From TrEMBL:
The keyword Oxidoreductase does not apply. Pfam families: DUF1707. The chain crosses the membrane at residues 81-101, 107-127. This is DUF1707 domain-containing protein. Residues 7-59 form the DUF1707 domain. The lineage of its organism: Bacteria, Bacillati, Actinomycetota, Actinomycetes, Mycobacteriales.
Length: 139
């Protein structure tokens, strides 16, 4: 039985090296054939020293960029709010065109479109209903 002097590599370390190789492939430093060869080499290695040799001729990965700050509102609430705003502007323009055509201000009917819909969206946003955290099942 042969005992290696190096520390054995874990699967997580191999996965990290493969992820680094994927970034180098995406950046154009290596081609697909070389990527396949290096990935096969990664999974053949047993020690950490052999793993670092796979990336020896490639530059160190760039520091991770900070993630964009997440919005307080989920994407579907932002989509609903933009739809509400678009429809609100549309009905206001229609009301204004009718009022100009008649020559006087007509009954302000857009309030029945803008008001209830906006109130529902505001309550849902303020209370977090359908925000995802109240409907998640714990596993």
């Amino acid at each position: 039985m042969e005992i290696t002097t190096g520390t054995r590599a874990s699967d997580a370390e191999r996965d990290r090296i493969v992820a680094d190789l994927s970034r180098h492939l995406g950046d154009g430093r290596i081609d697909l054939t070389e990527y396949d060869q290096r990935v096969a080499q990664v999974y053949r290695t047993t020690t950490r020293e052999e793993l670092t040799g796979v990336l020896a001729d490639l530059p160190a990965p760039a520091p991770a960029r900070s993630a964009k700050p997440r919005s307080r509102f989920p994407i579907w609430q932002r989509i609903e709010a933009s739809a509400w705003l678009t429809v609100s502007v549309l009905v206001l323009v229609i009301w204004a065109a009718i009022s100009l055509g008649v020559g006087e201000f007509t009954y302000f009917w857009p309030v029945w479109v803008i008001g209830p819909w906006g109130a529902v969206l505001a309550v849902r946003a303020a209370t977090g209903i359908e925000g995802g955290h109240r409907h998640r099942r714990k596993i």
